Amino acid sequence: MKHVRVTAGVDGSRAPPLFDRLANATAVDRARVIDWNLVADEAMVLLAVDGDPTPLVDVAPDTPGVERCEVVDPDGQSSGVGTDGASARVCLRVERSAVPIFGCLADALGAGGLIVRTPVVFREGEIHATVVGDPGPLQTAFERRGADIDVRIDEISSTPAASESVDGSLSDRQREALVVARELGYYEHPREATHADVAAELGCSPQTAGEHLRRAEAKLADAALDEVGPRA
């Protein structure tokens, strides 16, 4: 059984509007597909959005390929805004053609012998995914798409890779803050360092250091929960 990590990107001048909104929107740090149904031509997709989902929801009615877009709170109720300090859950009903890799993954899944692991991550103009199974159907599906999608295989291994929801999701500054905090003993019990100590090493204010740590910790917590799935 092979574990294949792939990255896909679309030329910015030819990118479908939805792809551009998810991968390049300034208000969205990262969008992760945490559940989906790609069986029909109109896919149902549940996203965890780090950042403000409002611009994405507001432009949805005018975005080609989007049939529905709404923020859903943790209890499953629809609302117009995300939860402050946490990843907003956004439900999308879209045409698969609105995001090229959806069509590729659906074709590959249709060939059998593959599992696409979630989360699938939209970040900085690219999509990152991990596929388990025979990479042959996946490669064939990508080649069939032609030149409108640029795909690279980052790794093929016999063992699971670290979750893409963690790998590369932290900003350089957030990662630096975590490293400094750990080295100073911030995560020891009892704590051996404070936000002020971390800030002194980072050259910023204690408030800024605390914010870097909070955001990094939130991403790591989200990644851990996405990995184990919802509680029964």
From TrEMBL:
Could you confirm whether the keyword Protein transport appears in this record?
Answer: no
Q: Which residue numbers delimit the HTH bat-type domain?
A: 170-221
Residues of the HVO-0513-like N-terminal domain: 17-157
- Keyword tags: Transcription, Transcription regulation
Q: Pfam families of this UniProt entry?
A: HTH_10, HVO_0513_N
The record's section on PANTHER family has: DIMETHYL SULFOXIDE REDUCTASE TRANSCRIPTIONAL ACTIVATOR
What name is this protein filed under?
A: Helix-turn-helix domain-containing protein
Q: Which organism is it from?
A: Halosimplex litoreum
